[in-house]
Write a structure and sequence with these properties.
This protein has 215 residues and is of the alpha/beta class. 37% of the residues lie in helices and 17% in strands. The protein is globular and about 45 Å long.
């Protein structure tokens, strides 16, 4: 999903960028079924969140975890239950991503039976510093008592993503290019140019130089 296109799309003042993302995910789910979403859009979103909001750089979708790291963590490539593996300062974190149908105007729980395979797998692999659940639901119903290793990132945290963090998750800065009118070469936009371009999309009265409003 194009996170930058979502950023540029008009939305109600009380709607977060994450709420808009969830609405688009719901459409994908309705059109293509759960598997399309489960193995793509939401997992990729969670990877970008970990990298750009949590500021952790060693992040792998399970299918991309290096073989030697799988062996170190007693995992096998065909294992199911863990969606993302994160490494930071020699510590390892197991992550499960769960997107569930969201019903507005009510609390949407992630039920404990949705986490059974995850907890079964982390209990016999690792060692893990934390077990992280990432979900669009409002809260998680854990299996048994929650421990210090259990951590959840739910809709409430996702809604707090700032506009600058969202732009970082778009992974445009340093890679967004435009074609020069005088040459065929591509020039990377600076962060300042990117911000000016975003502002220009919202207001046609923005001056071209410096991004200041025209008098």
């Amino acid at each position: 999903m194009d996170l930058h296109a979502l950023f540029l799309r008009p939305r109600a003042d009380d709607m977060s960028l994450f709420d808009l993302f969830v609405i688009e995910c719901q459409k994908l789910r309705d059109q293509h079924g759960y598997n399309h979403l489960r193995f793509g859009v939401f997992d990729d979103f969670c990877v970008k969140y970990i990298k750009h909001v949590c500021n952790l750089k060693n992040v792998w979708l399970f299918k991309d975890v290096p073989d030697e790291l799988l062996t170190q963590l007693s995992l096998k490539r065909h294992d199911r239950g863990i969606d993302i593996v994160v490494e930071s300062d020699g510590n390892y974190y197991a992550v499960i991503c769960k997107f569930k149908k969201w019903v507005p105007h009510k609390l949407n729980p992630l039920k404990k039976n949705n986490l059974s395979k995850f907890y079964d797998l982390v209990s016999r692999t690792g060692p893990w510093s934390q077990y992280i659940v990432m979900t669009n639901c409002d809260y998680c119903a854990y299996m048994g008592n929650r421990t210090v290793k259990d951590y959840s990132i739910t809709a409430r945290k996702f809604r707090k993503i700032t506009q600058e963090q969202w732009i970082q998750m778009c992974e445009l800065e340093g890679s967004l290019t435009h074609t020069s009118q005088s040459t065929d070469s591509q020039v990377a936009l600076t962060p300042e140019q990117l911000r000016a371009a975003r502002l220009a999309r919202f207001s046609p009265q923005v001056a071209a130089a410096g991004g200041e409003p025209a008098p």
